[in-house]
Amino acid sequence: RGELRNYTTDLKGLMLQEGGIRLVQGRPYQGSPTEKIFDIISRIKQGYYPGADYVLFGTVSSIQFRQEVMPLSYGSGGTATLSLELVADFSLINTKTYEIKAAFSAMGSGQDTKILTRPGDRVVMNRAKVITETSKSLADAAYAELAAQLGLRVPDRLLGQPSAGG
């Protein structure tokens, strides 16, 4: 349990790049990983987000790594794939009234694929690439949902982004 810190940098960058939103850095949660981490209202009251009008709070609802090896339809080789899918549920909360201004789920995914020339070949999968792709696609899906719900312009490249729902 913990915050989405490792997967929010790309979303913050996209929010800054597109404009219309001013970001302030909140204090990270420092307590032990208990249910208190989900009590965002208490954290707002305790001053974790000084100067913020809204807090975008996200929790991971599903995370799944997969590693698969598939034979090619010709020859003796195959492909090895490492993939990650991450679904996060977000709420945008007003820090004065505690009302939810926007709520949605977003999904990010990434993968690394290597070609195997012979059965039994060993490959090193690029976990960093998979995590980076997942973070970027999660940011794109989350920003598209957030912008649509707030009436902000959704960049053309993000229109039609896959999302886990909203």
Please characterize this protein's 3D structure.
It is a single chain. A hairpin with a 6-residue loop joins strand 1 and strand 2. The chain has helices at 9-18, 40-45, 127-150, and strands at residues 54-71, 78-94, 100-116. Helix 1 packs across helix 3. It is built from 3 helices and 3 strands. It is elongated and about 65 Å long. It is α+β, with helices and mostly antiparallel strands. The chain has a 3-stranded antiparallel β-sheet. The longest helix is centred in the last third of the chain and has 24 residues, at 127-150.
Count every beta strand, where a strand is a DSSP E run of 2 or more residues. 3
> First CA to last CA: what distance?
23 Å
Structural class: alpha+beta
Number of helices: 3
Q: What would the principal axes of the Cα set say about the shape?
A: elongated
Strand order of the largest sheet: 1-2-3
What's the pLDDT, averaged over the residues?
85
Order of helices and strands: HHEEEH
Q: How much of the polypeptide forms β-strand, as a percent range?
A: 25-35%
Give the helix proportion (percent range).
Answer: 10-25%
Low-confidence stretches: none
Rg measurement, Å:
19 Å
> Major sheet, described briefly?
3 strands, antiparallel
